[in-house]
Amino acid sequence: MLLENRNAVIYGGGGAIGGAVARVFAREGARVFIAGRTRAKLDAVAHDVAAGGGKIETAQVDVFDQEAVEKHADAVAASAGSIDIALNAVSVPHDQGTLLADLSVEEFMRPIDGFLRALFITSKAVARHMGRERPGVILTLSEPGSKLAVGGILGHAASAAGKEAFARVLAAELAPSNIRVVGIRPHAVVDAPAAGSYTGELFKPIAAAAGQSVEQLLHGGGMAQGTLLKRLPTLAEVAETAAFLASDRAAAMTGTIANLSAGALVD
């Protein structure tokens, strides 16, 4: 198993991506700790993992509460002995589709402040318990908006670029402590049914404005057709990639971004 005897913390572990990664990490032998705001979502993921024989613990934690996040990380490290892997999969609701003339500064700053604040708080909390004799891995999530020249995504694009810059610089800082930092950049992540996912909720207003369903926007000649593969990445593909990047098989990878955009971006 790729992650046998590893201890992994996933913030936003009750969400679509966080939950999918938790299930794969547990399947690959990791002891998984998921944290998030909504108990019911955390419990649903934990039920799936436990049913498959995996090891998982849950905690209600507000990722924007630095003291609470640090206390949780301290408790995990005390219980497990170390934190070997961490992923921040927290989602921040934000606007997509509004152009500069109609965009408020508050809406522009919402994803920038939210995503980067959460990434800073969680990374700082776990890094103290990582590395040295046990290699550590911090995984981050961004989006193609970091490089796309598309109108209506100013805040989204700035936050995505900020997360990728954060990951690269943090990799340089933590490398001497035997900690890798690797970003994952999926496109709009889909799974059936797409309309029930965070992706579906995010793109619902854009689809409605275009007179389309979310499925039509994502698949029917829409976003999927803008990729080389003519499809969008799935939750399973993101989760399997995360497990590989967190494993020793990717031990030479740090300070870089794994492009899971299905060819929407070609690096």
From TrEMBL:
InterPro entries: NAD(P)-bd_dom_sf (IPR036291), SDR_fam (IPR002347)
Record's keyword annotation contains Transmembrane: no
GO molecular function: oxidoreductase activity
Family annotation (Pfam families): adh_short_C2
EC number of the protein: 1.1.1.-
Record keywords, A-Z: Oxidoreductase
SUPFAM superfamilies: NAD(P)-binding Rossmann-fold domains
Keyword Hydrolase attached: no
PANTHER family: 5-KETO-D-GLUCONATE 5-REDUCTASE, ALCOHOL DEHYDROGENASE, PUTATIVE (AFU_ORTHOLOGUE AFUA_3G03445)-RELATED
Family affiliation: Belongs to the short-chain dehydrogenases/reductases (SDR) family.
Protein name as catalogued: SDR family NAD(P)-dependent oxidoreductase
Organism in which the protein naturally occurs: Paractinoplanes globisporus
